[in-house]
């Protein structure tokens, strides 16, 4: 995937605008433990979703960063998604800080995801049985199409399904964490400055405290406007509607191209249960970053070739109905053009806006759709993640995961398969088939009504595979099987796994009815 995190950090590090680049970037908080905050000392916290922790359900150890990746010669940090409970506590610590020096957030645009090399490796093949006509029977399958191919991620004991979920969340978490933590930091500073919640139909100017928060955190952003307002009319049952809107720009310079600016817009619509009760709530968080057209390696336009820059955007619709149930739907994509319009009338990402001849500014790269229902107390729940690399795909790749906890023991199962187009009006996030030959000779995307399964349990700080329930093996053919008579052989490009021509392969995939995940329903926001 072509992530904005890699793009912007490469630029900002080169131009020297983020002093922390050399040590992994961002600001560390003073307390990121896994405890649970039950009350808020910040009266402005009523206008904020303090439980909205977006992270991977299979992240099981503290987040860490290290300078160990290179993008076009520029070192960037690799950040592992933190446990959901840890990220929740971090937001609450920021929101409720009692000193301005603790109104800190992580502005780490370098969060390149951890690798999941066990998933979808390059595969060299000889004598592919589905070839027809003059198709070459020998070749290489591209990366990303083979699903959970190996049980463990490299030499580690981490279950591949957990590694892939961490990788997927790592792709989107950069902007999401910046938005959720930045909003909390601004309200932290506003509270310490003595600002109060606005009355009905009124607003509070946050521009000054927002700008000082950026300055204090070393963020090269100019805040043009920042407000917290309350609607003149409440939602159903006298529920107040708060809206926080922040607009600004990241400024930088590029060698040979002079000064550049990326506009930054964030909007939070938050609806608590009552004026003095934020125990349950609904809302929507939206963010977009407009990236100019920069002639520089990490800033490739990908499927938006020919466009004038990119617009990277996401939206989260969330609903907390009890202390143990928080549901959210997250959408994210890169739209073609720095002035694209990614949102619908409700400030929700519109994934039906695909780049086409008649819609040049539709999304072209990295369509993502996540449906998570979590228990914010312990991070367990049901999770579905669907994604498409480009707008021309007609199917999503889907990872569904269920995590449970019994006492201190954490375990679960994950499932991989394919699902409806991400622009579909229903069913996105659900697995409806397995496509075993996505890009090989004679490929068919009809697939079979099966899926992969890998179960896991937490051990020594990671999710390890339960081999007794493993169902991931198949042959990369339309039938998902192969016989010795077909004389078909294949091996990963690094030879970590191979199947000889003389071997028979009968898939051990599971039926769709054996998927033990309840795909959440996207919340309806008042």
Q: What gyration radius follows from the Cα positions, in whole Å?
A: 23 Å
* Count of the domains: 1
How many helical elements? Answer: 4
Strand proportion, as a percent range, falls in: 25-35%
Level of helix content?
Answer: 10-25%
User: Which class of secondary structure composition applies to the elements?
Assistant: mainly beta
The low-confidence parts are 1-6, 8-38, 63-76
Q: Quick one: how many beta strands?
A: 20
Mean pLDDT: 87
Shape, per Cα inertia axes:
globular
How many angstroms separate the termini?
Answer: 34 Å
Seen as an oligomer or otherwise, the chain set is single chain
Largest sheet: 14 strands, antiparallel
User: Would you list the SSEs in sequence order as H and E?
Assistant: HEEHEEHEHEEEEEEEEEEEEEEE
Describe this structure in words.
- The protein has 526 residues and is mainly β.
- The protein has one domain (4-514).
- Helices cover 13% and strands 33% of the residues.
- The protein has 4 helices and 20 strands.
- Strands 5, 6, 7, 8, 9, 10, 11, 12, 13, 14, 15, 16, 17 and 20 form a 14-stranded antiparallel sheet that branches. A 4-stranded antiparallel sheet has the order 4-3-18-19, with no helix packed on it.
- Strand 10 and strand 11 form a beta hairpin.
- Helix 2 packs parallel to helix 3 (160-192) and helix 3 (160-192) crosses helix 4.
- The chain is globular, with a radius of gyration of 23 Å.
- It starts with a helix and ends in a 15-residue tail after the last strand.
